[in-house]
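Title: Prediction job returns without error message
Component: structure pipeline
Severity: low
Priority: P3
Assignee: unassigned

Description:
Job completed but the reporter wants confirmation the result is attached to the right record. Sequence as submitted:
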Amino acid sequence: MQSTHAPAGVGAQGPAILPLPAFSDNYIWLLRNQGLAAVVDPGDAAPVFDALEKQDLRLRAILLTHHHADHVGGVLELSRATGAVVYGPALETLPHCDFPLQEGDRVQLPELDLDLNVLDVPGHTAGHIAYWGRAAGSEPALFCGDTLFAGGCGRLFEGTPAQMHASLEKFVTLPPETQVFCAHEYTLGNLRWALAVEPANRTLQQWYQRAQQLREQGLPTLPSSMGQETGTNPFLRTQQVDVVKAAAVQAGRSLTSPVEVFAVLREWKNNFK
């Protein structure tokens, strides 16, 4: 896969997954192949139109993970202007959706080298979905919206700790080489918190140093990988001894299940400065 750390030049046509920065910290992911494109969670139409023009691409599809405005705000403008078909979660109210999806469905667009399986991942929102499979020369790839972040996970706006924990456990079963295309540049803040949970985790220390270097150069820290996340992200490590101990100290009581550990970690992260 072409590096996501630098935008492609004008007229570039090779398969790639590229980040389009939006707002203060969002990434809209652009999937490109043979002059065609798809985008994931376009909260703002402007960066997408700009990329389509500069790279001479035609927008074929829009993939949505959940209903929040910073993920769907550009959908109507883009779909009306380009005729792109819109895929999104069946259980959420969206500005527009041609193909409502739920777990077990697949999105197959051979012209974009795209074959993605849909996962139901409630927690951040009640009907949040994720896409996992092959996309624009990258396999395996995960588009997880606001369910999983590098070093973190989404806040529980509509779901329960048990739901979010179960959703994240679906990701843990994916191959470690899975490229994780999160929707926000939250990595440094998340890793500072993760180091408070697991200060002795050497892999986490190294990842934080690398992420700092990338941001100092103005580069994205994403995509991450599932192997990296299972080794460093406390929300995916709720059965690791050091994580359980740290959560119990934070809670001031013993914790008897991974869901309890997750709930304490989520509250800890909510209040972490």
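Comment from assignee: result matches the submitted record. The longest helix spans residues 202-216.
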